[in-house]
């Protein structure tokens, strides 16, 4: 082994040495992070995706697994990414929409779908499940919610974000600004109005009962 190493050129030694060092540092960092995670009673990162289901939603989670939904979808951190990730879907759609999609995917979605829909599509069996099972699965999915700013949330975080602003400036065409509005601007306006109202209420004689 040592003789083979000696025969390598300087550039090859540098390359292999750099790769070996990178692998070593990666393993070391992984071990340290895992030790911190396992020894701490608090999550390492803010928990922004919620799985607050019980009763029918819990039964739906079991049906979701036993009906092989996790072979394509990920929910509660389990499953595959072959299809849409469903964590946070309850913040994007209400129960009525989810149930309508489970019963009639393409008409609800308004377009052709990949796997859900009439046979011979792979997930055509979902719409044929017993009504009680479909409702339980729908309740389960509706309870997978996300806070604003989470990767699975439909809306960006509130307040200014240098990263989002930089991405918009770099990639969003100017024509988009004429068609679409930045939801964060609405947040700022609401916050300003709320602050103004609190200031007005605090003034003497404003009728706030003080």
Structure write-up:
The protein is mostly helical. The chain has 9 helices and 4 strands; from the N terminus they run H-H-E-H-E-E-H-H-H-E-H-H-H. The strands form 2 sheets. A two-stranded antiparallel sheet has the order 1-4. Strands 2-3 form a two-stranded antiparallel sheet. Strand 2 and strand 3 form a beta hairpin. Helix 3 packs across helix 6 and helix 4 packs across helix 6. It starts with a helix and ends in an 8-residue tail after the last helix. The mean pLDDT is 82.
Which labels suit this protein?
mainly alpha, 4 strands, two-stranded antiparallel ribbon, 210 residues, extended
Q: Please tell me the overall pLDDT.
A: 82
Report on the biggest sheet.
2 strands, antiparallel
Q: What distance separates the N and C termini?
A: 86 Å
Helix content: 40-55%
Main sheet: strand order:
1-4
- Quaternary state reads single chain
Radius of gyration: 26 Å
- How much strand? under 5%
Overall geometry: extended
In N-to-C order, the SSE pattern is: HHEHEEHHHEHHH
Runs with pLDDT <50, length 5+?
Answer: none
According to DSSP, the number of beta strands is 4
Number of helices: 9
Structural class: mainly alpha
């Amino acid at each position: 082994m040592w003789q083979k190493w000696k025969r390598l050129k300087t550039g090859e030694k540098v390359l292999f040495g750099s790769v070996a060092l990178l692998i070593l540092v990666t393993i070391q960092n992984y071990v340290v992070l895992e030790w911190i995670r396992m020894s701490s009673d608090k999550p390492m990162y803010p928990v922004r995706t919620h799985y607050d289901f019980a009763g029918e939603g819990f039964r739906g989670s079991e049906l979701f697994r036993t009906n092989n939904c996790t072979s394509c979808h990920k929910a509660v951190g389990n499953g595959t990414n072959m299809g849409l990730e469903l964590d946070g879907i309850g913040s994007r759609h209400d129960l009525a929409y989810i149930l309508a999609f489970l019963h009639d995917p393409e008409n609800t979605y308004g377009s052709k779908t990949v796997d859900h829909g009439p046979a011979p599509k792979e997930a055509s069996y979902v719409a044929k499940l017993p009504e009680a099972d479909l409702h339980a699965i729908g309740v389960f999915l509706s309870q997978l919610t996300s806070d604003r700013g989470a990767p699975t949330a439909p809306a960006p975080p509130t307040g200014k974000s240098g990263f989002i602003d930089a991405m918009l400036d770099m990639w969003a065409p100017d024509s988009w600004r004429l068609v679409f509005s930045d939801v964060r601007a609405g947040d700022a306006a609401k916050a300003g109005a709320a602050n103004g109202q609190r200031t007005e209420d605090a003034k003497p004689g404003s009728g706030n009962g003080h």
